[in-house]
């Protein structure tokens, strides 16, 4: 019998606030994805399966009530650079670790910074406006 994949709580797949479908497909290779709707529909069974929460665009909201309902929770994985939206002290009081992706946007941020400096030095925006009006 194959070993059951660890359960990961996510808000949803797709839609306005859900995990992107391509990302969900990648996660499914390593985890059993449990949406918030599935969790709330069968809390007693699902709460035991969830070992991780995947936070995507600050969702789902991590509060004391949620943490208390997940006895086997080990880690909260935040998809993003900052963790300001998470109460780290409260989370750690449950013995739960928090991870994030600190270098995920380092290259794109540097690219935009360079583009802005070059545009400013060469007055590209002004030239484009002048060209458009002329």
List keywords for this structure.
single chain, 134 residues, alpha/beta, Rossmann fold, 5-stranded parallel sheet, 5 strands, 17% strand, elongated, HPPR reductase, D-isomer_2_OHA_DH_cat_dom, glyoxylate reductase (NADPH) activity
Describe the structure.
A five-stranded parallel β-sheet has the order 2-1-3-4-5. The protein has a single domain (7-126), classed as NAD(P)-binding Rossmann-like Domain (Rossmann fold, 3-Layer(aba) Sandwich). The longest helix is centred in the last third of the chain and has 16 residues, at 106-121. It is of the alpha/beta class and 134 residues long. It has helices at residues 21-28, 36-41, 43-49, 64-68, 88-93, 106-121, 124-133, and strands at residues 7-10, 32-35, 50-56, 75-79, 97-99. Keywords: Oxidoreductase. Residues 21-112 form the D-isomer specific 2-hydroxyacid dehydrogenase catalytic domain. This is HPPR reductase.
């Amino acid at each position: 019998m194959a070993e059951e994949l660890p359960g990961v709580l996510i808000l949803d797949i797709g839609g306005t606030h859900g995990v992107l479908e391509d990302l969900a497909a990648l996660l499914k290779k390593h985890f059993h994805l449990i949406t918030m709707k599935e969790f709330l529909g069968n809390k007693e069974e699902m709460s035991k399966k969830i070992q991780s929460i995947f936070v995507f665009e600050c969702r789902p909201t991590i509060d004391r009530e949620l943490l208390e309902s997940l006895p086997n929770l080990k880690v909260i994985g935040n998809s993003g650079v900052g963790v300001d939206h998470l109460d780290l002290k409260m989370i750690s009081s449950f013995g739960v670790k928090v991870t994030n992706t600190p270098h995920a946007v380092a290259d794109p941020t540097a690219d935009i910074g360079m583009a802005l400096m070059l545009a400013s030095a060469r007055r590209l925006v002004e030239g484009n406006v002048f060209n458009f009006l002329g």
